[in-house]
Amino acid sequence: MIDDTNPRAILEMSRAFQQSRALLTASELDVFTVLHDEWRTSTEVAEAISADPRGTDRLLNALAAIGLLHKNEGRFANSAAARRFLVRGRPDCVGNLQHAVNMWESWSTMTAAVRKGGAIDRPPIDDRGDEWLRPFIAAMHYRGRQQAADLVKRIDLSGVSRVLDIGGGSGAFSMAFVRAGTGISAVVFDLPRVAAIARNYIETEGFTGRITVEEGDYLVDDLPSGFDLALLSAVVHSNGPTENRQLIGKAAAAVDPGGRVVVVDWLMSEDRTQPVAGTFFALNMLVATDGGDTYTEAEVRDWLTGAGLGDLIRTDTPAGPGIISGRRPS
Questions:
Q1: Are 94 and 85 in contact (CB under 8 A)?
Q2: Peptide bond just before 124 cis, omega within 30 deg
């Protein structure tokens, strides 16, 4: 609740972008990786990142003020959190923050996007350059690795041997399914340039042979068939309602009788104000897509039943997104 006796909270909210921008700039300049486990002066850091010494010093001072760096006698070092989560190559590195930088660019168009009702000059995903696509898939892979194992535990895998991962990105969720059950194989279906990136992730993580990749546009092309489970994880929010109705119809046709279609995404309250993260994700879809949104449970259920699916089950997850699945009649 916002205090109606003091404007301080509103003013702080209006300036909240400042810490975000300092972190993103430091990430873009690779400040945390340059510092690694050493103490360095701002001049030394500036030389390493090819930046102005005064500008670098002011950035490092701000990062120290918010706890990402330490400063002692004119030298700077990573905080424990920065060493663990922000140094490239470390096991717990939070992933490529370049995706957040790209989001910054799209969110800067929000005023125009609200007026228009959709993204401003955003080309289709497969037409965007590697500077956008690879960080996006890296960010989705990081998120997927964090969430997929827990998600798969909440899905009944009895009788499941073939999984279709529609719009599966890096294949992180396919990997979780394959890890979860002996004899389970998966197919990632995604756009050609995404598919090329997915194959690298799959090979790197040792799933060649158990996870394959098929190229196509799920809004235009037919989906492969003969599966026990079709997964739509973080997919429906990218599309408008008509597209989702058609897509879930395709997913229902891709599973054999008795198979399930599983939708994982934000499930909004009927007034669309909860969960809070889902309301902001809806804004993200507004600035980043032509018709994407976050949807209510009733809307998702309507698409599933409209595709002839029954035995609908909703399951919530600690990460926030919900699961709704429906079974194709035997």
A1: yes
A2: no
116-162 residue pLDDT tens? 999 998 777 777 778 888 888 888 888 888 788 888 999 989 999 99
For residues 298 and 269, the answer to whether their CB atoms sit within 8 Å is no
DSSP string across 126-190: GGS-HHHHHHHHHHHHHHHHHHHHHHHHTS--TT--EEEEET-TTSHHHHHHHHHSTT-EEEEEE
Are 115 and 258 in a shared domain?
yes
Sign of CA dihedral 281, 283, 288, 290: positive
Question: And the tokens for 69?
Answer: 């760096």
Same domain, 40 and 187: no
pLDDT at position 139, please?
83
Parts of the chain with a pLDDT under 50? none
DSSP state of 278: H
Alpha helices in the chain (DSSP H): 8-14, 17-28, 31-35, 42-49, 53-65, 80-85, 98-107, 110-116, 130-153, 172-180, 192-204, 241-254, 276-288, 297-306
Whether residue 125 sits in one domain with residue 178: yes
